[in-house]
Specification:
Strand content: under 5%
Strand order of the largest sheet: 1-3-2
Structural class: mainly alpha
Radius of gyration: 58 Å
Number of helices: 47
Shape: elongated
Length: 1120
């Protein structure tokens, strides 16, 4: 600023403002170099107020400070101008009268200066609002970015409202001031999100000035906010045409419209062009930086890893430049939000949190705010500030209800706090709004798959089913979208497959195996195979019975676990070695199993399961004493281990030491009365003790019923603690079937009707047990019930299922049950083949347990009963000499067996020697009768064979006669057909001759007809449409009554029927007799008298003239 005594406006530069003082002194103000020192600035204000400066001068000075970003200086200049001009207006009002002063001041130019300055103050407040925070976080909420000022954007908008109201009251707002007023109000309304009011303001400006770029830019912004992208694009293109150097650059908005219309290439070109025109355009820099960051995250095959890395570096630099230039603006907030994610991935969580908090406070749009809140929450989460993270996640979820990251983060916070119901609620809320969020589905399924103590068994089943359904839905989604790489990456999650396997392993081994196999594949591809997953896969294959696959999986798990760096690697390998030893044991490789168990015990002598394994191997080879020593060592190590005590109970059962087993089980129940296994075992021991008691006194029977009652109570107690316990349910079914709670005693018979009823009730229970307990005993018990009900076929079916499916035909007891059923069926049906099948099963059982003499007794009994049954059959036609011969052989072998059994001097025989000797004697008496029966049977068989041969010969002769008769009938029929065909041929020829003769006679008759007399006036007949002229003028001949075609005078049917299917042959004449045909009588001629001609002419005029079609069908053309 400089002073000059003589004003020289013409020589002043364009960016220099000249102020004329009252003493005619001229001051030049350089608008490009305005003073910033406080003293010089105050001097400038004094000079402006002392001069005759108007609003134009104050506005230029304020704009100069505004361009340099000195908003406070600009505001002070405008306020000084308002103060100066207000004083001038008040002085003028004191000199003039009120009415005159008001009218002159209203019409003067100065009356519009004050409104313009007030509008300028409003715009300065709006500029302050653009750089003010949208919100200020409290001290409790903020962690890194605390703002010095608490003034928010809304405060400056309220200040702008005050200035606009002052402008409306300051003076005249018509003319150019009116447009300024509309524009200021429209910009204010747009900043306040009052889109409808802003639209009206901008439309008011455009109605007066259609090319106003500010109004057009405002209207374009409103259209974009309303998602009218094409309309907004046209408006911005109009602005660019009107003013290519417009600021703000409309190319930025054009690019945004193209991006919203999915034309990303044109959007990028528009932003790049904006930077070419104005390199300092921060909006274009921000958008290009975000494009580069998005490109760096791309998963398409067209972008290499190097290109994405370069895009990431370039985008980070552009965003950093924007944040440095616009740190306190909405543009800077968007850049800060994006940079916060970059820093969070780099592990700089504190700096990321600071940028996120800056974005939260300065962001002007809801998406940027919600993104910043999520990033702030993630940074707090990483820093361990869980309370603050929960606050940010909750705010983000409230501001953007469909934002997946906010809800998932909120669920994670609840999960950290172990609030699983809240986790499920958060994820359910997200899926209700955005059901296709795969991440939320997988997380919810994993949570539902967890076992929670607070859930009841029914609720746990519901949660597990829900988890399975969600996993299956995700799998279907992956299959339906094979090209979605992001979705397939989520499906390639080993933990997800492990969760699926855990959900199915108790219900479907096949699905669990598939899931573990997928988890193993994923981990193998990633090069990080977890030995525990491979071990679990081996367990599934082991349970399925595929021992080879299980062995391979265990060996692979041990190999991987040996090189694993897990802290629990030793324990994992120990478990896998035990599983491998179990496989060797079940494969029958005793040496390898023993070696594996010994290796485990050498490394871990306290390993109880290995000791139990060694004991089990010794029990299998019937070394019970050595096995007992291993079990005692395990019991001494952990006497309260329920699995060890359960195995000890099984040991007593397997060694037939039932009394000791019952006592030990009773002691186990005193330690834990709710153990279902011990309850079932105790019930079985009690049932066995009561059933095997052989004393028949009343006291013994009473004690036996009490013991049965204890067994039933034990089973009921087990079902109380585990309603799904199939073993307990089966025990109760057996008690019901045997009806042992009232008056059961050894050898005492039962009422057949009651036994059948009890068996039916037991079958109902056993059928349900079969669905949950996959064991042969269930089928055996069902076979017992069917046997009691005399349904031997169904009993045999159940026994065979148990023997083949579960015992592989090597269980002697089941084979004896089959033998008994076939024996009962054969005895009932008197079927020797059934008895033979029963004998085969008994012999097989004897082969398995050759030392069991009770089975040998049963074999001898069946062989003897076979001959007894055949000898009791009186009808010799129901047996054969071959069967009788085999039965005699069996009976002879039975004699040897009974002789051995009767002479056996061993103690504690399972049969009575006296009965065996009686059976031997009875067999001798039967064999003495057998020869006679055999002779009679052979004689009967010979007679039967002779009768059968005679009957067969008679049937053959009868068959030959029948065939000869059929051949004769066919020959006769052929002759008749030939004769009929010949008769029809003759008839067709005769009919043709008759037709020709009849035609010739008709022609002769036409020639002999008399002509009409001359003098009779001919009447012209007008032809109908469609008829020819000849037809119209031809005279009509009176016809006689129409005769039925092809019918004789007596009404006989036409002879055409004799011609068969040959419709093309001429029709036959009328039949006069069976052997001859005559020509028909000619038509009678009509004789007309002359006096009748007039009447005939009248009649002809009254006739209806036939058309051409009708005439062609008349009798005159019949024989043409």
């Amino acid at each position: 600023m400089s002073r000059s005594p003589s004003p020289s406006a013409l020589s002043s530069p364009s960016r220099v403002l000249e102020l004329m003082m009252d003493n005619s002194e001229q001051i030049q103000v350089d608008l490009d170099n305005l003073p910033t020192d406080q003293t010089e600035f105050e001097y400038l204000l004094e000079c402006a107020q002392d001069s005759s400066a108007l609003s134009r001068e104050y506005t230029k000075i304020a704009q100069g400070y505004w361009r340099r970003g000195l908003l406070q200086n600009a505001k002070a200049v405008v306020e000084g101008g308002i103060q100066s001009m207000s004083q001038c207006s008040f002085a003028a009002g004191t000199i003039l009268t009120t009415v005159t002063a008001f009218s002159e001041l209203k019409g003067s130019k100065k009356s519009q200066d004050l409104p313009s300055l007030h509008h300028l103050l409003a715009n300065l407040s709006l500029s302050h609002a653009r750089e003010a925070p949208k919100m200020v976080l409290s001290r409790e909420e903020v962690q890194q970015d605390r703002l010095a000022s608490s003034a928010t954007k809304n405060d400056f908008l309220a200040e702008a409202t005050t200035h606009m109201n002052a402008a409306a009251m300051a003076g005249d707002t018509s003319g150019p001031i009116e447009i300024l007023s509309f524009l200021t109000r429209g910009v204010h309304q747009l900043a306040s999100r009052q889109l409808d009011e802003a639209t009206a303001s901008f439309d008011g400006v455009l109605s007066k000035s259609s090319h106003n770029t500010v109004a057009l830019l405002g209207k374009a912004r409103i259209q974009y906010s309303r998602r009218q992208y094409r309309e907004s694009l046209r408006t911005l293109q109009t602005v660019l045409q009107l003013r290519p150097d417009c600021r703000p650059d409309p190319r930025v908005g054009i690019g945004l419209c193209f991006w919203a219309l999915d034309d990303h290439e044109k959007a990028r070109m528009a932003w790049e062009r904006s930077l070419e025109v104005n390199p300092e355009c921060t909006a274009a820099t921000l958008l290009l930086g975000l494009c580069a960051m998005n490109h760096s995250k791309g998963t398409g095959d067209d972008a290499s890893q190097e290109d994405r890395q370069q895009s990431f570096i370039h985008g980070s630099k552009m965003l950093s430049a924007v944040f440095k230039a616009e740190a306190n603006s909405s543009l800077g907030a968007a850049a800060a939000s994006a940079l916060a994610e970059v820093l969070d991935r780099q592990g700089l969580h504190e700096r990321s949190l600071k940028l996120a908090e800056r974005a939260i406070q300065y962001a002007d749009t809801l998406p940027v705010v919600s993104d910043a809140q999520v990033r702030a929450a993630r940074a707090c989460h990483a820093l361990g500030l869980h309370e603050q993270a929960m606050r940010h996640y909750t705010s983000a979820a409230e501001s953007a209800p469909t934002k997946s990251l906010a809800w998932i983060g909120k669920a994670q916070m609840h999960l950290i706090s172990d609030e699983l119901p809240a986790v499920i609620h958060a994820l359910d809320t997200l899926l209700a709004q955005k059901g296709d969020c795969v991440e939320a589905q997988l997380m919810l399924a994993s949570i539902c798959a967890l076992s929670r103590p607070s859930l009841s068994s029914s609720d746990a089943m519901v949660e597990r089913k829900k988890a399975r359904d969600i996993f299956e839905k995700v799998a279907r989604t992956v299959q339906q979208q094979p090209k979605n790489k992001n979705l397939h990456d989520k499906a390639e999650d080993a933990e997800m497959h492990i969760d699926v396997a855990r959900l199915w392993q108790s219900e479907s081994l096949d699905r669990a195996t598939r899931a573990y196999r997928e988890a193993t594949r994923v981990q193998t591809v990633a090069g990080a195979l977890d030995p525990r997953v491979s071990n679990n896969l081996g367990v599934m294959r082991h349970l399925e019975g595929d021992l080879i696959a299980a062995r391979d999986a265990y060996q692979e798990a041990i190999t991987v676990g040996a090189s694993s760096s897990l802290p629990t690697a030793d324990g994992i390998i120990t478990t896998m070695m035990y599983n491998l030893a179990r496989v060797y044991e079940e494969q029958g490789d005793a040496n390898k199993a023993k070696e594996a168990y010994d290796k485990l015990l050498g490394k871990h002598p306290e390993y109880i399961d290995a000791k139990i394994g060694r004991a089990r191997m010794l029990i299998n080879i019937e070394k019970h004493d050595e096995a007992h020593q291993w079990i005692k060592q395990a019991m001494e190590a952990e006497p309260t281990n329920i699995n060890t005590r359960a195995f000890y109970t099984w040991y007593f059962y397997n060694c037939n030491r039932y009394k000791e087993g019952a006592d030990f089980t009773s002691a186990s129940l005193k330690q834990n009365s709710n153990d279902v296994y011990n309850l079932c075992a105790y019930g079985w021991f009690m049932h066995h003790a009561a059933r095997e008691g052989r004393q028949r006194t009343e006291e013994a029977n009473a004690e036996r019923i009490k013991t049965f009652t204890r067994a039933a109570s034990s089973f009921i107690n087990a079902l109380t603690h585990d309603p799904a316990c199939a073993v307990a349910a089966q025990g109760l079914a057996i008690i019901v079937a045997e009806d042992v709670l009232d008056s059961w005693a050894p050898g005492k018979g039962t009422n057949d009707a009651k036994a059948r009823t009890n068996a039916r009730e037991a079958l109902l229970a056993l059928t349900k047990v079969k669905e949950s307990l996959n064991d042969g005993s269930v089928y055996v018990n069902m076979g017992h019930c069917y046997f009691v009900r005399d349904e031997f076929e169904r009993a045999i079916e159940c026994y065979e299922t148990a023997s083949n499916r579960f015992y592989h035909g090597m269980n002697a007891a089941t084979l004896l049950y089959l033998s008994r059923s076939w024996y009962a069926k054969g005895t009932k049906d008197k079927a020797f083949t059934s008895i033979q099948v029963a004998l085969q099963f008994a012999q097989t059982a004897l082969h398995i347990q050759s030392h069991d003499k009770s089975i040998l007794y049963n074999v001898a009994m069946i062989e003897q009963k076979a001959l007894e049954m055949l000898l009791s059959i009186e009808d010799m036609s129901k047996r054969s000499s071959d069967d009788l011969e085999r039965a005699i052989d069996h009976a002879k072998h039975a004699q040897k067996l009974f002789n051995c059994l009767a002479s056996d001097d061993s103690k504690n025989l399972p049969y009575s020697k006296d009965i065996a000797d009686q059976r031997r004697k009875y067999g001798e008496s039967m064999l003495r009768k057998a020869d006679e029966h055999m002779a009679n049977q052979q004689k009967h068989d010979i007679e039967s064979q002779t009768q059968v041969a005679a009957a067969r010969k008679l049937r053959e002769e009868e068959y030959e006669r029948h065939q000869a008769q059929i051949a004769a009938e066919q020959a006769a029929k052929h002759q008749r057909d030939e004769a009929l065909r010949e008769a029809r041929r003759v008839a067709r020829e005769t009919a043709a001759q008759w037709t020709a003769a009849f035609k010739d006679e008709s022609e002769d008759e036409e020639d002999r007809k008399p002509r009409r007399k001359t003098g009779v006036k001919k009447e012209k007949v007008k032809a109908e449409p469609g008829g020819s002229a000849d037809e119209a003028t031809a005279p009509k001949r009176k016809r006689g009554p129409r005769r039925k075609k092809n019918a004789d005078d007596d009404g006989d049917e036409p002879m055409a029927e004799l011609s068969g299917a040959d419709d093309s042959a001429p029709k036959q004449p009328k039949k006069a007799s069976k052997a001859s045909f005559i020509l028909p009588r000619p038509k009678k001629r009509l004789v007309h008298d002359e006096e009748d001609h007039e009447d005939e002419d009248v009649k002809k005029r009254r006739k209806i003239i036939k058309s051409k079609e009708t005439i062609s069908d008349s009798d005159e053309d019949l024989f043409e």
